[in-house]
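[agent] plan:
  1. take the single chain provided in the ticket
  2. run structure prediction with default settings
  3. attach structure tokens to the ticket
  4. add a short note for the reviewer (M.T.)
[agent] executing step 1
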Amino acid sequence: MSDATSKAARYRAKRDAGESTGSEPPAETPMVLNAQNQAQFVETVIQLAIRRGEFDNLPGAGKPIEGLGTHHDPDWWIRRKIETESLTGLGPPALMLRVEDEKLDDDLDQLGREEDVRGVVEDFNRRVLDARRQLLGGPPVITQARDVEAEVVRWRQRREAVQAAEADAAESAAPDARRCRRHGLFRRRRCGPVSLAESVTIT
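[agent] step 2 finished; step 3 output follows
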């Protein structure tokens, strides 16, 4: 690219950005974008924007790119839209199953019986197989079916861990409650409100 064309590119970028352009460029060298100078024009605009600080403090600055290094997902933008907007019932089955698979453990943890856990996992597996057999096109189904018995075991383990944590928390709080009852109602401010049953016991 000639010097005249380069100067014209910088002049046009500064003019579009509202910066002072100084002297007018030569009239005989108007800026005409083509395959040769387009890349340099874009680079000039980017550099001017960097100097103005337009790329400072952008969301995600200094953080790793989410999903970088994992398998390539050509439909990542649809999946991201469904997740960020909390959309339900929209999109091809392949994408909906991926979203459901990611939160399936949380959904199972809301259930209280093993029979219900088995039913949900079996229904999920059935829909995965149906999506793989569908002939309407769309993105491929990469979601794997889950082993029902293995999911029941994992659900039971998570449930027992939560119950153990709750029991530990209750046990650690019990001495404080006993100490408050032992010192009478005048400790209400430090120990919190006293229930009717506790007041009867204290008196």
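[agent] step 4 note for reviewer: The two ends are 96 Å apart (CA to CA).
[agent] ticket updated
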